[in-house]
Amino acid sequence: MSESHWLKRRHSLDDSILQSALGGALRGNVDDADLFFESSQYEGLLLDEGDVQRTSLSHREGVGARVLSGERTGYAHTDELDPRRLNEAVRTANAIAEQGNADQSVSLSQRQGQRDLYAVGTSPIHVALTDKIALLDRIDIAARGTDPRVKNVTVDLSVEHRSIVIVRADGLVLHDERPLMRMMITCLVEENGNRQTGRSGGGGRTEFGFFVEDGRWERWVEEAVQQAVVNLDAVEAPAGKMPVVLGPGWPGVLLHEAIGHPLEGDFNRKGTSAFCGMIGQRVATELCTVVDDGTLPGLRGSLNIDDEGTPTEQTVLIEKGILKGYLHDRLNARLMGHQTTGNGRRQSFGHVPMPRMTNTFMLAGESDPADILRSVKRGIYAVGFNGGQVETASGRFVFTANEAYLIEDGKVTAPIRGATLIGNGPEVLKHVSMVGHDLALDEGVGTCGKDGQSVPVGLGLPTVRIDEMTVGGTAV
Predict the structure, then answer these.
(1) Do residue 358 and residue 459 come from a single domain?
(2) Which of 202, 236, 342, 424 is an S-S bond match for 444, by CB 3.0 to 4.6 Å?
(3) How many CA atoms lie within 13 A of 408 on its CB side?
C-alpha cells in the first residue's frame, strides 16, 4: 500500500494505525481476522418514454472488521473512517466472537504484488454525464427506427468504481481498483393489441468505450427487438417430459443456479447441499466439465483478488462427470480441511464474506450445434431465461424461458411462450448426451443473490442436449 493510497491520503490511516487495530482483533483463541476497507462510487441512469427519467450518483466509504474463532464469526462495520471508530468496530467483532484478553501482534511489513485483470485507463465513473446521456438517446432513436411496432424503449445504465483495501492477520495488505458497468435495453412492441417485450445488454470491468466498440449496443438493440417481435407469434408451450436443447451463453444461468450454488462450500460443510460428501463420485455424464474461473480479463465476475485478499483462480468443480471439489472462502476451507479457492465475496464493507461464484460455465464439447438440434425428434430449444428458483438441499429447480422454440423432426420451428423447465440439478447432468463446441459466456449482465447479498457474476454454456426434462406448459 503506497503512501498515496486513499486510506492514507483522505483519512490518515497509516500502517501503524492499521497494525494496532488488527492487533486488537487478534485477542484470545482467534483463528483469523481481517479488515475490509471500501470506497465506492455509483452512478445510474434510466431512459424511458424517450427521455432520461432518472439519474443518481452516490459515494460511500467504510470498513468491516471480522474475527473468526472456530465456526463463530464476529463482524462489525462503520462508515466513519477514523481510528476511534475503527477500533470500536474491531472490539465489537471480537466481543461477538467471545474472545479472551491475550493480545497477539501482527506485522504489516509484507506486501503482495498482483495481476491486473481490468486495466482501465479512465474509469467509466469519470466519463462525462453528457456523454452517457447522448449514448442513451442514440439507443432510443435506433431502437424505435428498427421496427414500427416498437412502442417504448427502456435503457438502464449503471456504472460503479470500488477501491478496496484488505488488511489480513497474516500481515498482507492488499488493494484493488474495481471498475464495473452494465447496460440493459428493453424494447416493448405491440401488434393488434398483443404486447411483448425483449431484453438484451452487457457490460463488464472495462472502459466506457466497450459499449460502442464492435457495434455492441446496435447488436443489443437488434436482439431486444427481435426477441420481442418473435414472441408476438409465439404458440403455447407443450407440457411433459421431452428432450431439451439449451442454447449457448445466457442459458448457463440454469447451470449457475442448479449446479453452482449447491457446490458452494458453506452449503456442503453444513450438509445442506445435494452434492454433500460426493467428491470423487460421478455426478454427470463424462461430457460435462464445469469450472468457476475468476481470472478472465474484463469479465463481470472476474476479480484480481477476492474480498478476503485471496487471488482468484480457475477451479474445476466437475471434470468429465466426476465431482472434484467445492468453492471456498477462508472460513469454510479451514473448517473442511480444504484449500481456499479465492471465492470469498461480499456485497460491501457492511456484509460478511461467504463462498460465492465468479464466472461459472461448462467447457465446450465436440458436437456441432446443428447436429445437436437435428438429433431431436420433438422437444424444445431454450435460448433465454427470465430467472428461476432453486432448492439447494434437494437440487430441485424451476426456470422460466423468455425465448424458446419447438424442435420438430430436427428443425427449429415455432416460437413458444409460457415454457418452464422443471428438474433436479444433479439428475439433469446425468441426462446430458451432447455438448457443442460453441461455448459462449454471457454478455456481462449477471447479478447473483444469496443470503440477502448481491454480487456481479458471469456464466456460460455451449449448446447442450438434455435427453429428458420436465417442461411445464399449457399445450399438450
Answers:
(1) yes
(2) 202
(3) 7
Regarding whether 460 and 327 lie in a shared domain, the answer is: yes
186 and 285 both lie in a single domain: no
d(CA 211, CA 214): 8
Q: What is the DSSP letter of 82?
A: S
C-alpha–C-alpha distance, residues 99 and 218, integer Å: 58
Could you tell me the residue range of the domain that residue 209 belongs to?
124-163+177-233
Are 220 and 269 within one domain?
Answer: no
pLDDT for position 8: 82
- Do residue 182 and residue 296 come from a single domain? no
Q: What is the CATH number of the domain that holds 208?
A: 3.30.2290.10
Are 446 and 337 found together in one domain? Answer: yes
pLDDT tens per residue across span 303-332:
999 999 999 999 999 999 999 999 999 999
pLDDT averaged per 10 residues in sequence order, the chain, 476 residues: 66 88 83 95 96 93 94 94 92 80 58 80 95 97 97 98 93 93 98 96 97 96 96 93 97 93 96 94 97 98 97 98 97 97 98 98 98 98 87 86 96 94 91 98 95 97 97 72
Give the chain's end-to-end CA distance (angstroms, integer): 64
For residues 431 and 379, what is the distance between their CA atoms, to the nearest angstrom?
14
| 138 neighbors 215 (Cβ within 8 angstroms) | no
Q: What is the largest CA-CA distance in the chain?
A: 76
Q: Mention every residue, 6+ apart, whose C-beta is less than 8 A from residue 16.
A: none
Note if the pTM is more than 0.90. Answer: yes
Say how many domains are in the chain: 2
| Domain identity same for 225 and 245 | no
Rounded CA separation 106/169 (Å): 7
Say if CB 156 and CB 140 are below 8 A apart: no
Closest CA to 402 of 286, 277, 256, 237: 237
